[in-house]
């Protein structure tokens, strides 16, 4: 198997196929257990795990470690999926409590976000907001791992960024209206 990993790291398509076929059953089984029997959800998770593993395969320094490395990637993909589902559920709950008559954000307001982030004077807040609101967006756990800080610190930084953004946007609005 280590030879297949080395061949795949050099771009050999047949080696990628061999690795996939050797590990698809175990990976799908893990994803199926995680998704509580949802075969479609498990297939999506499995696809995501292999896509990440194959994209990052050149980073694997010890080819014999491939099975454990793939399991770690699969577990993290499953955890990220659960975090996304929880966030979507919270957002759906919050939307259900909000009046349905509110229109969605107009396109100019959505386009304002990157420029707003870019003008944040605090480097730590700006970097955190760029990762959280970027494309693709990162979870607070991923941001914490990337920046070497706790998830709580990430959440605190995002709260501070949002507070700064509200004040900054009000000031910009008042300037635009010519209000002293």
Features of the shown structure:
single chain; 180 residues; Arc Repressor Mutant, subunit A; 8 helices; 0% strand
The major beta sheet can be summarized as: none
CATH topology name of the largest domain: Rna Polymerase Sigma Factor, Chain: A
**How many distinct domains?**
2
Determine the CATH superfamily of the largest domain.
Answer: RNA polymerase sigma factor, region 2, helix turn helix motif
Uncertain residue ranges: none
Cα(first) to Cα(last) distance is: 70 Å
Look at the structure and give the CATH class of the largest domain. Answer: Mainly Alpha
What structural category do the secondary elements indicate? mainly alpha
Q: On the 0-100 scale, what is the average pLDDT? A: 85
Question: Cα-atom Rg, whole angstroms?
Answer: 21 Å
Q: Let me know the number of strands.
A: 0
Summed up, the helix count is: 8
Instruction: Provide the β-strand percentage band.
Output: under 5%
Summarize the helices and strands and which ones pair or pack.
Layout: H1 2-9, H2 13-34, H3 39-55, H4 66-97, H5 107-118, H6 123-133, H7 140-147, H8 151-177
Helix pairs in contact: 1-2, 2-3, 2-4, 3-4, 5-6, 6-8, 7-8
What does this structure look like?
This protein is mainly alpha-helical and 180 residues long. The protein has two domains: 2-97, RNA polymerase sigma factor, region 2, helix turn helix motif (Rna Polymerase Sigma Factor, Chain: A); 107-177, Winged helix-like DNA-binding domain superfamily/Winged helix DNA-binding domain (Arc Repressor Mutant, subunit A). It is built from eight helices and no strands. Helix 1 (2-9) packs across helix 2 (13-34), helix 2 (13-34) crosses helix 4 (66-97) and helix 5 packs antiparallel against helix 6. The radius of gyration is 21 Å and the shape is elongated. The mean pLDDT is 85.
